């Protein structure tokens, strides 16, 4: 008897006791659904983390002044990073793709008759769009010539453009920042909210030299921090080491002395967060998988009952020439079919539940944009695990059936 015939016989046998078969696979359905839901939600969390770090930029490394501890409060040391540090990193670190200094400021922006306060008002370099992987929707970003001449030009985010100019084209329009006129030359593509719900598109970018000279009135060449993009994720750690070595030399910091700067690699932070979400997903999936054991025990119990009920049938089969291994295969296939049906239903319910949970999260926290992830490998693993449960817990009843004495089986009432 081939496998196809065994599967058909198993389906007919299970169909004779629909209620009992349904209750038997319920444990498997619950277990597979729970595991599938946990894996899907966990993969969605990992994808969310990756998306947020992609929004931050391409392999971004942040260089900022060191902080000190004073009275339990973290305080910034004097501004130790300079424009020259930025230039040196760009020219002397082979693993670095692009560099942009950053100087923060704040205030009201006036466009026509409308006042608006952006979430971010920052002075940056000409390579800022490369570092942040943030292309233009309209217009152009300011050039290195604009930076050198401290030109009164700016680039705005999509939210700021909508607030100040509504349906009008903002390119070429004039805005005022601290009573200083700026010409809008570009609008960034929308990025949406970040992980904490802050609108990233409510932003105003200006040349950092313009912010320093015209808005702050400073003659110093210090910058608040430096954003660096490594050439690739694989070179991110190498770029971090090159930056650290270069700045130690430039700032004349001897070995063993504390540095007056900090270098933070966002790729490493992203990896740590992915490890954390992966570990939590594995733990929750392992807890959910306990119900699979319960379902497996249910399958074993039902199969033992089935062996008892069908003892006479087994005797007839053996009398007609069926070998013990044929009986073993028959009951083993029934067990696998039972658990596989439960696995298929569980996968469908699991993905339905994860879609519902994802929808609910996005309704309650619309800024999160939690992604719904369907993983085909995870579904195949879950189905394989369900079949393994059937084999593991169905082997003993199948083996017991195959060892029945044909004569005793025929006499069984």
Give structural notes.
With 413 residues, this protein is α+β, with helices and mostly antiparallel strands. The protein has two domains: 193 residues, no CATH class; 182 residues, no CATH class. 56% of the residues lie in helices and 17% in strands. It has 13 helices and 14 strands. The strands form two sheets. Strands 1, 4, 5, 6, 7, 8, 9, 10, 11, 12, 13 and 14 form a twelve-stranded mixed beta sheet that branches. Strand 2 and strand 3 form a beta hairpin. Helix 2 packs antiparallel against helix 9 and helix 9 crosses helix 11. The longest helix has 44 residues.
- List the domain count as a whole number: 2
What proportion of the residues form beta strands (DSSP E)?
15-25%
Structural class: alpha+beta
Characterize the main sheet. Answer: 12 strands, mixed
Short key terms for the protein model shown above:
14 strands; 2 domains; 413 residues; alpha+beta; two-stranded antiparallel ribbon; 12-stranded mixed sheet; 56% helix
Question: Layout of helices and strands, plus pairs?
Answer:
Layout lengths: L2 H14 L1 H39 L3 E6 L1 E4 L2 E4 L6 H10 L3 E10 L3 E3 L2 E3 L3 E5 L3 H4 L4 E4 L4 H5 L4 E4 L1 H8 L8 E4 L2 E9 L14 E5 H8 L9 E6 L5 H15 L10 E5 H44 L1 H9 L4 H41 L11 H27 L3 H6 L2
Parallel strand pairs: 7-12, 9-11
Antiparallel strand pairs: 1-13, 1-14, 2-3, 4-7, 4-13, 5-6, 5-10, 8-11, 9-12, 10-11
């Amino acid at each position: 008897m081939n496998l196809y015939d065994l599967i058909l016989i198993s389906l007919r046998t299970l169909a004779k006791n629909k209620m009992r078969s349904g209750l038997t696979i319920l444990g498997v359905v619950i277990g597979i659904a729970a595991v599938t839901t946990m894996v899907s939600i966990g993969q969605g969390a990992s994808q969310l983390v990756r998306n947020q770090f992609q929004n931050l930029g391409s392999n971004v490394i942040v260089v900022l002044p060191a902080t000190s501890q004073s009275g339990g409060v973290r305080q910034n040391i004097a501004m130790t990073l300079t424009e020259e540090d930025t230039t040196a990193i760009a020219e002397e670190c082979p693993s670095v793709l692009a560099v942009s200094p950053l100087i923060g400021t704040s205030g009201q922006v006036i466009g026509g008759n409308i006042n608006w306060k952006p979430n971010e008002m920052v002075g940056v370099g000409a390579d800022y769009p490369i570092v942040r992987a943030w292309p233009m929707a309209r217009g152009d970003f300011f050039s290195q010539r604009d930076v050198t001449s401290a030109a009164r030009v700016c680039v705005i985010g999509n939210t700021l453009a909508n607030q100040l100019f509504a349906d009008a084209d903002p390119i070429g329009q004039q805005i005022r920042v601290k009573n200083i006129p700026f010409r809008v030359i570009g609008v960034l593509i929308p990025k949406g909210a970040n992980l904490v719900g802050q609108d990233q598109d409510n932003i105003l970018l200006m040349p950092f030299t313009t912010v320093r000279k015209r808005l702050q009135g400073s003659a110093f060449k210090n910058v608040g921090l430096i954003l660096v993009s490594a050439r690739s994720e694989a070179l991110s750690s190498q770029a971090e080491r090159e930056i650290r070595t270069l700045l130690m030399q430039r700032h004349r910091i001897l070995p063993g002395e504390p540095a007056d700067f900090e270098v933070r690699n966002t790729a490493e932070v992203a990896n740590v967060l992915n490890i954390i979400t992966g570990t939590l997903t594995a733990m929750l999936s392992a807890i959910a998988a306990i119900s699979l054991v319960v379902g497996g025990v249910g399958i074993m119990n039902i199969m033992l009952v089935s062996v008892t009920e069908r003892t006479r049938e087994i005797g007839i089969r053996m009398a007609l020439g069926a070998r013990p291994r044929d009986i073993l295969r028959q009951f083993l296939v029934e067990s696998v079919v039972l658990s596989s049906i439960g696995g298929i239903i569980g996968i469908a319910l699991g993905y339905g539940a994860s879609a519902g949970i994802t929808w609910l999260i996005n309704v309650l926290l619309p800024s999160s944009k939690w992604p719904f992830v369907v993983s085909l490998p995870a579904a195949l693993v879950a189905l394989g695990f369900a079949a393994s449960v059937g084999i593991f817990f169905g082997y003993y009843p199948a083996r017991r059936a195959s060892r029945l004495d044909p004569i005793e089986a025929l006499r069984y009432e």
